[in-house]
Design a protein that fits this description.
It comes from Pseudooceanicola pacificus. Keywords: ATP-binding, Nucleotide-binding, Transport. This protein is of the alpha/beta class. It is 33% helix and 23% strand. The protein has 2 domains: 181 residues, P-loop containing nucleotide triphosphate hydrolases (Rossmann fold, 3-Layer(aba) Sandwich); 79 residues, no CATH class. A hairpin with a 2-residue loop joins strand 9 and strand 10. The longest helix is centred in the middle third of the chain and has 19 residues. The protein starts with a strand and ends in a 19-residue tail after the last helix.
């Protein structure tokens, strides 16, 4: 039986007279990778900002495991199991890889400021446990060789992997990945695709993905949700969505029986 984890029901977001998201209904089930695609300006990142509490919804509802997020302050979404990466890197460039990933454990820390300053008893035990979790993530993402490097000295692809590690450190139930392979070369993209599949299969974390790379989307997604002008065009299996006339028209600007969304890559119109 399918177990629904994240549910969006008729979600809208308006900025003045502009409706960026209009009536989106979407589910993410346990054990799934769901991708959200659409042309530039389709409302994808705005949708992520609503799910992660960066923005409030104008109407509709978002819930995780049946709990309505409208009743929860945005900064507490992480406690309910929502983790995310950002389209633009948001790392502490002067900190090490370990330090940056440790930030993801902050919400789990229970010790007081005094206990932490003395670094004794519970504070010491807690830090050891959190550092052990960070080492597990570093091992999982195969970044042991850069664990002590200052993040600002790393390549863009390595920094993306560190940001993924920090999101995993929050212990998410559903992980929002906003253009996680943007700017990466083919080898780096293939590595991230493998990690995404392992996150779902080995860590039992559901994935909601926004991505420009349609080959990646079609290769790893269980379902794809297509948006245009903030509204749903269609949802279904990758092959079904790929050949949907409305999706083709949204990417290419006209209807054609033979074209597919990937064809728009050359025109820079993807996702």
């Amino acid at each position: 039986m399918t177990q629904k984890l994240l549910q969006l029901r008729d979600v809208t977001k308006s900025f003045g007279g502009i409706q960026a998201v209009g009536g989106v209904t979407l589910d993410v089930n346990r054990g799934e990778i769901v991708s959200v695609i659409g042309p530039n300006g389709a409302g994808k990142t705005t949708l992520f900002n609503l799910i992660s509490g960066v923005l409030p919804v104008s109407s509709g509802s978002i819930s995780i495991e049946g709990q309505d997020l409208a009743r929860v302050p945005g900064h507490r979404y992480v406690r309910l199991g929502i983790g995310r990466t950002f389209q633009n890197l948001a790392l502490f460039k002067h900190g090490t890889v370990v330090d940056n990933i440790l930030v993801g454990r902050h919400w789990r820390m229970k010790t007081s400021v005094l206990e932490a300053a003395l670094h004794f008893g519970r504070a010491r035990r807690e830090e050891i446990a959190h550092r052990q979790k960070v080492e597990e993530i570093i091992d999982f993402l195969e970044i042991e060789h850069i664990r002590d490097k200052v993040v600002g000295t790393l390549s863009y692809g390595q920094q993306k992997r560190v940001e993924l590690g920090r999101a995993l450190a929050t212990d998410p139930k559903v992980l929002l990945l906003d253009e996680i392979v943007a700017g990466m070369n083919q080898e780096e993209t293939e590595d991230i695709a493998r990690f995404i599949l392992d996150i779902r299969d080995e860590l039992d974390i559901a994935i909601l993905l926004i991505e420009h790379d349609m080959h990646l989307v079609m290769d790893i997604s269980d379902r794809v949700h297509a948006l245009n002008f903030g509204r749903t065009i269609t949802e279904g299996r990758p092959q079904e969505v790929q050949s949907h006339p409305g999706v083709i028209e949204a990417y290419l600007g006209h209807k054609t029986e033979d074209a597919a969304p990937q064809d728009a890559r050359a025109a820079g119109g993807l996702a």
